[in-house]
Write a structure and sequence with these properties.
Elements: H1 8-59, H2 66-69, H3 71-78, E1 82-86, E2 89-94, E3 97-107, E4 112-118, H4 125-131, E5 141-144
Helix pairs in contact: 1-3, 1-4
């Protein structure tokens, strides 16, 4: 009678090959997951900024809580990707940097300015990647006041 079972050596070779494949695939999987997270957070940040500007234009004022003006900012906060840091201010987290991007509205008697700032200083490549998705030339942006045209 002929045995059709695998030998111990064949099983070891299969396990070694699977280990090598896993070692090659895991970094790519992690990079893909990071890219997806950066893309999702970036989208929410940009939509949130747009919503804040639209709210100010439509209502002629802003609120102390940015989540009232933007569902996207509220979603970022509820998912733990951002936190309120004061009146009219939110910090977006990425790559271990608690304030990778800061969004705030400065209010004076005659105008309101939307500021979007980067606070990474090269500490995190994930934060750098998120910051690279923002067009920094647009900020600060006046969202209410005499020179804003409806």
């Amino acid at each position: 009678m002929k045995r059709t079972a695998f030998t111990m050596i064949e099983l070891v070779f299969v396990i070694v090959i699977l280990g090598i494949l896993a070692a090659v695939a895991m970094p790519r999987l992690n990079a893909t997951r990071d890219d997806a997270r950066i893309s999702a957070v970036s989208h929410m940040v940009m939509v949130g900024i747009s919503e804040i500007g639209s709210y100010a234009m439509a209502n002629g004022r802003t609120e102390d809580d940015l989540t009232v003006m933007s569902n996207s900012i509220g979603t970022l906060i509820s998912k733990g990707d951002a936190a309120n840091t004061g009146i009219k201010s939110v910090a977006v987290h990425m790559g271990g940097v608690a304030d990778c991007i800061t969004i705030d509205v400065n209010t004076t008697a005659t105008m309101e300015i939307l500021n979007v700032k980067s606070n990474n200083n090269g500490v995190s490549s994930l934060c750098d990647a998120l910051q690279s998705t923002v067009n920094w030339n647009q900020y600060p942006m006046q969202i209410r006041g005499e020179s804003v045209v409806r």
